[in-house]
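Hypothesis: this fold can be encoded by more than one sequence.
Test: take the structure tokens below, design a sequence, compare later.
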């Protein structure tokens, strides 16, 4: 990775080190300095408001964003966004609490809003060679002898369905179950049957009916075949183990309720894996929705 692809604390201090720098950035991303009356907007001292020099019209640039109504200084928000952006194995609220000297609740809330924002992005269909797979996540109980406790053990677990375009993007969803109907719905919403070249899965018969119309290739995991030429789901398998390893190390336990937002964080990192600077700027772009429709998403928090 070239040096210019990096974006670290020093860059952050230069670009977003003060409340004013952050506000100027947010304002310039979402609005124009020139008012329609011919005047120019500038920041009102000590407030999160900009005012036109001529007609005195005021604009609050954080309105409708995750920063709105948050008493946390904006430079701490941007610091948290950068740490989140650079932490490929995830970051815990406890760690943010320590690094920024904010309360645990404030730290947790910032991370929650950042992850939550990632879900609202519009998504393109996957194409080319696409791997698709499911995994079980969480829950402590094991199936026991001959899987007698299987159903009980499964109740504590969550199903995650995922698909990845080779050399491209990842999609992953926490799903109510791994039945054919659920898989079919995921396929419809994420993989284009016309522009996808091959759909690569394991031998599960749950795909038999729903993957009609896709050029499906399978590996026989049940006979311990994991790779045949370039037929494998290893990209997804290693993503699953990255998620499981990382959440174990960083977050200890993630409840079912919040699993999707954490998963969105990992998917974001995967999809923006090549360049630290771009990933950070992309994340800020996601957090500063510029259309009214997107903004209304945040007002419901
Ligand atoms: Zn004006």
């Amino acid at each position: 990775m070239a040096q210019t692809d990096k974006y670290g604390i020093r860059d952050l201090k230069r670009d977003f080190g003060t409340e004013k720098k952050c506000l100027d950035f947010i304002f310039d991303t979402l609005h124009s300095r020139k008012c329609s009356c011919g005047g120019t907007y500038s920041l009102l001292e000590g407030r999160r408001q900009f005012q036109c020099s001529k007609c005195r019209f005021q604009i609050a640039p954080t309105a409708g964003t995750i920063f709105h109504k948050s008493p946390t200084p904006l430079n701490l928000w941007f610091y948290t966004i950068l740490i989140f952006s650079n932490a490929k194995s995830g970051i815990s609220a406890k760690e943010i609490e320590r690094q920024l000297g904010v309360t645990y609740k404030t730290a947790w809330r910032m991370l929650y809003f950042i992850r939550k924002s990632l879900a609202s992005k519009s998504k393109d269909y996957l194409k080319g060679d696409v791997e698709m797979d499911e995994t079980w996540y969480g829950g402590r109980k094991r199936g026991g002898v001959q899987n007698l406790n299987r159903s009980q053990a499964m109740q504590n677990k969550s199903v995650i369905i995922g698909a990845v375009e080779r050399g491209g993007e990842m999609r992953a969803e926490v799903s109510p179950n791994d039945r054919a109907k659920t898989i079919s719905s995921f396929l419809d919403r994420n993989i284009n049957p016309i522009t996808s070249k091959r759909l690569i899965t394991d031998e599960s018969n749950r795909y038999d009916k729903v993957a009609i119309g896709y050029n499906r290739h399978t590996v026989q995991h049940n006979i311990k075949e994991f790779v045949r030429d370039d037929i494998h789901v290893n990209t997804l398998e290693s993503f699953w183990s990255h998620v499981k390893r990382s959440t174990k190390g960083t977050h200890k336990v993630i409840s079912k309720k919040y699993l999707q937002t954490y998963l969105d964080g990992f998917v974001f990192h995967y999809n923006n894996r090549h360049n630290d600077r771009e990933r950070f700027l992309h994340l800020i772009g996601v957090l500063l929705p510029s259309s009214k429709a997107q903004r209304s998403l945040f007002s419901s928090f």
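The pocket of zinc ion is lined by residues 35, 37, 39, 52, 54-55, 57 (CB under 6 Å). Confidence is low (pLDDT under 50) at residues 292-301.
Hypothesis status: open.
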